[in-house]
Design brief:
This protein is α+β, with helices and mostly antiparallel strands. Helix 1 crosses helix 7, helix 2 runs antiparallel to helix 5 and helix 2 crosses helix 7. The structure holds adenosine-5'-triphosphate and magnesium ion.
């Protein structure tokens, strides 16, 4: 993508109405645009990050048997009255119609699968979607960490026994661990014992350590597990010493038992209620959490796996068409090799402005072409998170990148 073609422009100043770091950096870099409190557009660069996170999530959920569907956002009142959740604070309601905007989907999926799960032979089933949720969040001040509209992956599992649910629950823990590892925040993300289980006393959250977090958790670094303050009773899961940390919930897993199958009469051929579990990942929150974890004074430092582009190619031409045409050529060579490149080909920016924008946007590999590097038939390559500059010969560039990316 040539930067002269890109819709967005970077800004030097933080938006006045954004207090949270993720929103400031994402807005300045041209990843998101705020439409209202807790309501964001994902711009071209931002949507590329979301798409990469979604791909990782889809791969890991499909590895544990997930089948993707897409359920509607508009939900009939009738479904929600069955569980008594129509009047909860989260629900946005459509005036003059018996419809609400979906803030979660237990009431919809349970009535849906009832048409297809007819006997114990149809079990187990694992159904998921990636979809926009709507929630009346009165305190939407944390950028994309807490939206009134946000992207969630929600998976629901259906079993013939509690034992089968328990086994699947453990598989989901592994899939979630893989997701957070692949998104680069694995080391900062803890499996956390939490309250709020509808059926078992506890549920589990995946909490990422960051000062922007709205939860307090007690972390055991030895056992790599944590306990949410809500359920902490002076002792975690283990006997080790724990540290109090701020964290953001990037996912959670619940054993639902038969709560929803009872409300909707979801039974097998013998009249046994089907046992359920549900599992969420906040896709857009995860993007915000990554930004909160990986940044410095200059901007974002994207992990390779979710970066909008792999390479930021920067032409510092000093007005010389010769340099410009050589860097245009390198751009097209990289494109032919299917290397994802953002190409700063702008004529109206100084070298300093381009390098600052590059740090702000945070693409993992910076590649600079200038009169100085071309004298040597080379380009200058630097990783976003490091100060080490490497000089790579143009003819060795593709090999270098194939090795490095
Ligand atoms: P929180 O305690 O932060 O409000 P929650 O317990 O309400 O989260 P769930 O209903 O379990 O969250 O939703 C599943 C996942 O969706 C959460 O783990 C979180 O990552 C994400 N999520 C929840 N609410 C929001 C929101 N308002 N904006 C962005 N992501 C959210
Ligand atoms: Mg909530």
């Amino acid at each position: 993508m040539k930067q002269t073609d890109l819709l967005t422009k970077t800004t030097k100043e933080n938006p006045k109405d954004e207090k949270s770091l993720n929103a400031q950096l994402l807005a300045r870099g041209g990843f998101v645009d705020k439409l209202g409190a807790g309501i964001y557009t994902f711009l071209p660069l931002g949507l590329r990050v979301i798409t990469k996170i979604e791909k990782i999530v889809r791969e890991e959920i499909e590895k544990i048997g997930g089948q993707e569907v897409l359920m509607p956002s508009l939900h009939p009142k009738e479904n929600w009255e069955k569980t008594g959740r129509w009047d909860v604070e989260e629900m946005y309601k459509i005036k003059d119609e018996n419809l609400g905007l979906g803030w979660t989907h237990e009431e919809i999926i349970t009535s849906l699968v009832k048409k297809h799960i007819l006997s114990s032979k149809d079990l187990p089933k694992y159904i998921y979607q990636i979809q926009n949720k709507f929630r009346n969040e009165p305190r939407a001040k944390s950028g994309i960490l807490r939206g009134k509209e946000f992207i969630m992956k929600d998976l629901y599992s259906f079993h013939s026994s509690e034992k089968d649910l328990d086994e699947y629950y453990e598989k989901v823990k592994v899939a979630y661990r893989n997701i957070y590892n692949r998104c680069g925040i694995g080391e900062k993300t803890y499996l956390t014992l939490a309250g709020g289980g509808t059926f078992s006393k506890y549920s589990h959250e995946f909490q990422t350590i960051t000062d922007a977090g709205e939860d307090i958790i007690y972390v055991c670094d030895k056992c790599k597990e944590a306990t949410n303050k809500e359920v902490y009773e002076g002792k975690g899961n283990c006997d080790c010493e724990v540290k109090e940390m701020k964290a953001i919930e990037v996912g959670n897993i619940f054993k639902l038992g038969t709560k929803y199958s009872e409300a909707f009469g979801l039974k097998d051929e013998n009249g046994n209620l089907i046992v359920m579990g549900c599992y969420g990942v906040g896709i857009s929150r995860l993007m915000g959490a990554i930004v909160e974890v990986f940044n410095d004074g200059k901007g974002i430092i994207w992990p390779k796996s979710v970066a909008p582009y792999a390479v930021h190619l920067i032409c510092i031409d000093g007005g010389k068409t010769e340099i410009k045409s050589q860097s245009d050529e390198i751009y097209s060579i990289l494109q032919k090799q299917n290397i994802e490149v953002l190409y700063d080909n702008r004529d109206d920016k100084t070298a300093g402005e381009k390098l600052n924008d590059c740090d702000l946007i945070g693409i993992p590999l910076r590649m600079v072409i200038s009169a100085k590097t071309l004298k040597d038939d080379s380009v200058e390559v630097k990783e976003r998170g490091s100060d080490e500059v490497k000089i790579v010969k143009i003819k060795e560039l593709i090999d270098f990148l194939k090795h490095d990316l």
